[in-house]
Design a protein that fits this description.
By secondary structure, the chain is α+β, with helices and mostly antiparallel strands. The protein has helices at 37-46, 111-125, 131-138, 140-160, 163-184, 188-199, and strands at 17-23, 29-35, 50-53, 58-61, 70-77, 84-90. The strands form 2 sheets. A 4-stranded mixed β-sheet has the order 2-1-6-5, covered by helices on one side. The longest helix has 22 residues, at 163-184.
């Protein structure tokens, strides 16, 4: 873990460290804030994103009044060591406007990764009445069969040239593939790595 003294803040007149906050699951950029030494050290100590408010001249832990904390997953300094990327797990909206992000990027941005997390959580919790739970209870043969069925339906709509139905069936295919992936412990990150290896 990098120490606060290792950051180069010579270009920043106020001596504060700019922090870009990103959702570790969806990769959506949530907000930008600032840290001083105390805020940085408190973040490292507690695992909750804590910043320095320039308007109030005081520390503030994100979510201390709203309950919408951001739990730190990882932190990366940039190449010049003067900005920090904080990747975290947000609990609720990150913005005071009650929106997911302080930036008005599309709301669906990153949802495919969120869906992967939902499937993972269903597998852990196995809630009654959940279709995903049903698939896990039926086993790998049923999961694989559903992937095959959805693949065929996707092909049918592709040949028919029906874009709306094609999108619908592709989404069914992706969901059932996520369930099968979860059975094998395969993640989007694993697929990205394989694709990158092939690309290289």
């Amino acid at each position: 873990m990098i120490k606060f003294d290792e950051f180069d803040l010579s270009k920043n007149a106020d001596g504060l460290l700019p922090v870009v906050v990103q959702d570790a699951t969806t990769l959506k950029v949530l907000m930008v804030a600032y840290m001083n030494r105390e805020a940085y050290e408190k973040t490292v100590e507690t695992g909750k994103a804590t910043f320095y408010s320039r308007s109030r001249n005081s520390l503030w832990t994100k979510g201390e009044t709203s309950g919408n904390f951001i739990y730190v997953e990882s932190m990366y300094p940039d190449c010049d060591n003067d900005t920090l990327l904080l990747m975290g797990k947000p609990v609720g909206p990150a913005c005071h406007r009650n929106t997911t992000s302080c930036f008005d990027t599309p709301e669906h941005e990153g949802f495919i990764r969120k869906l992967q997390k939902v499937v993972e959580n269903r597998h852990k919790e196995m809630p009654e009445g959940s279709y995903t739970t049903l698939l896990f209870n039926k086993g790998v043969k049923k999961m694989a069969q559903k992937v095959g069925e959805e693949a065929v339906e996707t092909v049918i709509e592709a040949i028919a040239g029906n874009k709306e139905r094609y999108v619908y069936e592709v989404c069914d295919l992706l969901y059932h593939t996520f369930v099968l992936n979860e059975h094998f412990g395969v993640t989007l990150e694993d697929l990205e790595k394989e694709l990158l290896d092939r690309h290289s």
